[in-house]
Amino acid sequence: MTSTQSKKHIKVLYLDDEDNNLRSFKAAFRREYDIYTANTSEQAYEVIKSVRPQVIFSDQRMPVTTGVDFFNAVRQIFPDPVRILITGYTDINDIIEAINKGHIYRYITKPWNEHEIRVAIDNAYDLYLTRRKLENKVEELEKINHELSRFIYSASHDLRAPLATSLGVIRVANHEVNDPLAKDYFEKIEKSVKKLDVFVHHIIDYYKNAKKEEDIHEIKFEDVLEEVIETVRSGLGTSDPQIEWEVHQENKFMGDEFRLRIILSHLISNAIKFKRNDQEEAKVDIMIKSDLEIALLEVRDAGMGILEEHIHKVFHMFFKSGDERTGSGIGLYIVKEALNKMGGSISVRSKPHEGTIFTIKIPNKL
Question: Are residues 320 and 267 in contact, defined by beta-carbon separation less than 8 angstroms?
């Protein structure tokens, strides 16, 4: 197959109000490309709808419309063709307008020469193919991502029921036996199942945060905080951490309560989990202040703290410090992602064996 034959599948449309220009264009390139011409924008639209050209040329100065206006209208309905402006004028303002308004690929000045047009068509077609491949890849990735997300979410929900059943059976069995060794085994099994259950919860939180649109409602921080603490306590079993809090809210605050609950839940759970070995129970202090502009939240613990070289990594997905109590490695990542959705920020200060302070700022969406 020759080079000329291989180019015949490239469809090119040329719009110009002068018939002589159209005839010259078609005569020059019809052997190499599939050439279509139109002397009005209405004819050009019909050609575009029927043959879907990959490359479109248009003269700039025409009686009814300009090439820029034509391209601007075309790209709203048919964004794929690569657009090239032909003009007899070199006014820089026209060129800037063409690029900004018509989103043209390039412009060619009159009188054009055949070599320049051929190079423009070939390069434009290569760009067209690249864009199409990229669009197809994006669509494919979006489809795969959606299917994977749905699978993870469905699998996580399906795991919750058997995990809850297993925990119930383990607790009953542990009360039924008296053998210390058997009790030790049951406690270890229960600990592992709880760890898996927390991981499943984290996956569900991650999915919901990623997919759920921001939902703005009035937030009463004291009510939300009390409910979150109660929920966290209920999942601890016999553990009874010392949790103290104070809330200062005098003004109406609008925000995403769903994501606020995720943030508080993960930070409080983390503070309890990483208590020092010499502490009988974890100690957590929570302070919330809000005004008409922002809410400032501080979650402070007196736990084992974070090594300085780890502080910048704690919000990375699946980061684990190496401590045996380290969980899924996505809790703080979810916190950071939730804050990103809310337009908020988080910072951390910590000293090993002294404790950690997380400071959160959330804008008021009044």
Answer: no
- Write the single-letter amino acid at 152: I
> Closest Cα partner for 40 from 59, 27, 54?
59
Half-sphere exposure at residue 288, Cβ-oriented, CA atoms within 13 angstroms: 20
Number of other residues whose CB lies within 10 A of the CB of residue 93:
8
Neighbours of 128 (CB within 10 A): 18
Q: For residue 98, what pLDDT is reported?
A: 62
Helix axes 67-77, 41-51, angle to 10 degrees: 30
Residue 1: predicted pLDDT: 39
Q: What are phi and psi of 104, to 5 degrees?
A: -80, 155
Phi, psi of 356, rounded to the nearest 5 degrees:
-140, 145
Helix (H) or strand (E) holding 358: strand 355-363
Q: CB atoms < 10 A from the CB of 158, how many?
A: 11
Q: Which two tokens stand for residue 177?
A: 């036996």
Helical residues (DSSP H) of the chain, grouped into ranges: 3-7, 19-29, 41-51, 67-77, 92-102, 114-176, 180-211, 221-234, 257-273, 331-342
Please report, for residues 169, 181, 227, the alpha-carbon distance to residue 177 in angstroms, rounded to integers and kept in the order given.
Answer: 12, 10, 36
Torsion angles phi and psi, residue 250, rounded to 5: -110, -20
Domains of the chain: 3-112 (3.40.50.2300), 216-366 (3.30.565.10)
Structure tokens of 197?
């259950």
Antiparallel, parallel or unpaired: β 345-351 and 355-363? antiparallel
pLDDT in tens, 81-106: 999 998 876 666 666 666 666 688 88
Residue with tokens 């009510």: 223
